[in-house]
Amino acid sequence: MIYPMMMKVDFKSVKNVKKHPAGLIISTGTSWLIKPFLMFGLATFFFYVVFKTFIPADLAKDYVAGAVLLGAAPCTAMVFVWSSLTKGDPAHT
């Protein structure tokens, strides 16, 4: 899935990313400052409130930890796919 997207990357242009750092700064800030806390809040709400009767508390704690990790580390393949679908810059992606 990643291979076709990687074929579109001009690796020489990756050096030019530092000329326009806004996308990189926004993406990094979102990934490390917003998404883990948002996922913690959502997972806590759903696993401890909504699905409280179906999931034991000790298992809910593990699910919350997994949700935080998934929120902080998006799938690289999907990042490439969404970038391709929006006609984004593969070098920035």
Report on the architecture of this protein.
The protein has 93 residues and is mostly helical. The chain has a domain at 21-85. It is built from four helices and no strands. Helix 2 (22-50) packs antiparallel against helix 3. The longest helix is centred in the middle third of the chain and has 29 residues, at 22-50. The protein is elongated and about 55 Å long. It starts with a helix and ends in an 8-residue tail after the last helix. The model has no long low-confidence stretch (mean pLDDT 81).
Write the layout of secondary structure elements.
Layout: H1 2-6, H2 22-50, H3 57-72, H4 76-85
Task: Supply database-style keywords.
single chain, about 90 residues, 4 helices, mainly alpha
How is the biggest beta sheet arranged? none
What does the average pLDDT come to? 81
Number of beta strands: 0
Give the SSE string. HHHH
The radius of gyration over CA amounts to 17 Å
The gross shape turns out to be: elongated
Uncertain stretches of 5 or more adjacent residues: none
Summarize the structure.
With 93 residues, this protein is mainly alpha-helical. It has helices at residues 2-6, 22-50, 57-72, 76-85.
